[in-house]
Structures are given as structure tokens and as C-alpha cells.
Design brief:
Layout lengths: L5 E6 L1 H6 E11 L3 H8 L3 E2 L4 E5 L2 E5 L2 E2 L16 E4 L2 H14 L2 E10 L2 E11 L2 H22 L8
Antiparallel strand pairs: 1-8, 2-7, 2-9, 3-6, 4-5, 5-7, 8-9
């Protein structure tokens, strides 16, 4: 079925650079109709967004969903707090980890799955500057090894 496919709306690549990703969770998100139409057009920014737990509920804070161009009074505030839909057990587990270990909840990507908007929420620990440098050095080393081994399988007379 074509409906089972996942269509990625936006990917937060910056999160993978700035944080160590410890665990990921898939959460639904409560949106209005014009916000969904705006998402279908790809008008969203997750760069400064984060997950927050308040009164036993999970929210997405700081995500910018641009107002729908053809919407009128039904358009909402682009920076409003949006409720994330998770099981109570998952929220309590995340709350304990965030409070005890000083971790952060960062959205990695927003996507459509079976017609519903979903968020990949990651439990993250911030990277220090030297961690970022080490990650870049390891990536460069892997790239160099791939370049060196790519040419080995070919013969010289081709």
C-alpha cells in the first residue's frame, strides 16, 4: 500500500551535530488543519525546538510552522506550543531521565506516516566542542579510507 510509506517533511540535521542521541521515540502531534496544510507545503523549521514535560504532558516548544497562505482566521501562532502524543508510561520515563541525568528532548524529524504527522523525538546529551571535533575527524578518516579502497578493485589497464 502507498499509504504505509513515510514522507519526511523536515529533518533536523543540526541535532545530530550538536548532541549525542541516546534513544528515540515516535510521537504524534496535535495540530490544526491549516498547520497540516502548511506542513504539506514544507513550511516548518525545527532548528531551535525542543520537547518539554509540563503537568504530566509532553509539548513541542520552539517549532516554527509558517501560517498557511490561503488560511484566514483559522491560522494560528507559528511559534505556539504543540502537544505531543505519547503514552503516560513513556512520558514518566522521559521525565525521570530528563530531571535526573540532565538530558534534553530534541525533535529529529517531522514526517507523515499513514496520513498522520509524527515526530521523531530523541533523548540527547549535549556535545562539547572537543566532541564535535572528534566526530568530524572520525568522519573525515572514514571518508579517506573509502576513497583509498574504492580505487583498489579496478585494474590499471582500464
Amino acid at each position: 500500500m502507498a499509504d504505509d510509506k513515510i514522507k519526511v517533511i523536515v529533518d533536523n540535521r543540526r541535532a545530530r551535530h550538536d548532541y549525542f542521541i541516546l534513544d528515540t521515540y515516535e510521537a504524534g502531534i496535535a495540530l490544526t488543519g491549516t498547520e497540516v496544510k502548511s506542513l504539506r507545503a514544507g513550511k516548518v523549521n525545527l532548528s531551535d525546538s525542543y520537547g518539554m514535560i509540563k503537568d504530566g504532558e509532553m509539548f513541542l516548544e520552539g517549532a516554527h510552522i509558517s501560517p498557511y497562505e490561503h488560511g484566514n482566521r483559522y491560522n494560528t501562532d507559528p511559534m505556539r506550543r504543540r502537544k505531543l502524543l505519547l503514552h503516560k508510561r513513556q512520558i514518566l520515563k522521559l521525565y525521570g531521565q530528563v530531571k535526573q541525568e540532565g538530558l534534553t528532548l530534541i525533535p529529529l524529524k517531522l514526517y507523515f506516516s499513514k496520513g498522520k504527522v509524527k515526530v521523531d523525538l530523541a533523548l540527547c546529551k549535549g556535545k562539547k566542542l572537543y566532541d564535535k571535533r572528534n566526530t568530524e575527524a572520525a568522519k573525515d578518516a572514514r571518508r579517506e579510507i573509502e576513497r583509498a579502497t574504492r580505487g583498489r578493485g579496478r585494474s590499471r589497464d582500464e
